Amino acid sequence: MPLSSAADGAAPRVPMASGMSQRIAVVRAGAALIWAAALVIAVGDEIPRTGSHVTFAASALVVLYPLIDVIASLAEARRAPDQSSGILRANAAISLLAVVALGATAFGADAGAVLVAFGVWAIASGAIQFGVAIQRRRAGGRELPMILSGALSAVVGVSFIAASQANDAHLANLGGYAAFGAVLYLLWATRSRAAMPR
């Protein structure tokens, strides 16, 4: 449920969401839903132990997810005002670091380490998204879905880190995280579109 298209409100005077922001949000949500389904299929019925290795397919998918956020953030930054393009680029950089960390853990460590790396990223990106959405709401934006998305991302990130200490690594829960975030992005795009002058 990371930042991407919701971040073009880094400053209180940022204009309302544009049609391009809404399209980016919809495409991002669609990619996240496809990713979630693919991850659930890749993980399969067998729940791995936190100390076990992650399958190649699941590892590749886990590494790919933050790239959705990188691409969406950079696409939005290209059309965002100067004061908000910086936070979008910073968010893309955080997500790119997550790609590296998840690659190291998914391919070189175990399922528990994957949950920790994913959780840390979810907390960081969720906190940024939450702060930006609050600012945009104060400026008149319809940001409740993005406020919820950011807050839930941070909370769920903590739960992923806590789950890394358990015996079982429920990696399919990452798919649920992505799917729920996608729904909130779609809701945000719908609400923003309805608020635009006709």
Can you give a write-up of this model?
- The protein is mostly helical and 198 residues long.
- The chain has one domain.
- The protein is 74% helix and 0% strand.
- The chain has six helices and no strands.
- The longest helix is centred in the middle third of the chain and has 28 residues.
- The chain is elongated and about 45 Å long.
- The two termini are 29 Å apart.
- About 6% of the residues have low confidence.
From the structure above, extract its key features:
198 residues; mainly alpha; 0% strand; elongated
Order of helices and strands: HHHHHH
Number of helices: 6
Judged by helices, strands and strand pairing, the structural class is mainly alpha
Low-confidence stretches: 5-16
Q: In percent, how much strand structure appears in the residues?
A: under 5%
Largest sheet descriptor: none
How large, in whole angstroms, is the Cα Rg?
16 Å
Helix proportion: over 70%
Concise overview:
The chain has 198 residues and is mostly helical. The chain has six helices and no strands.
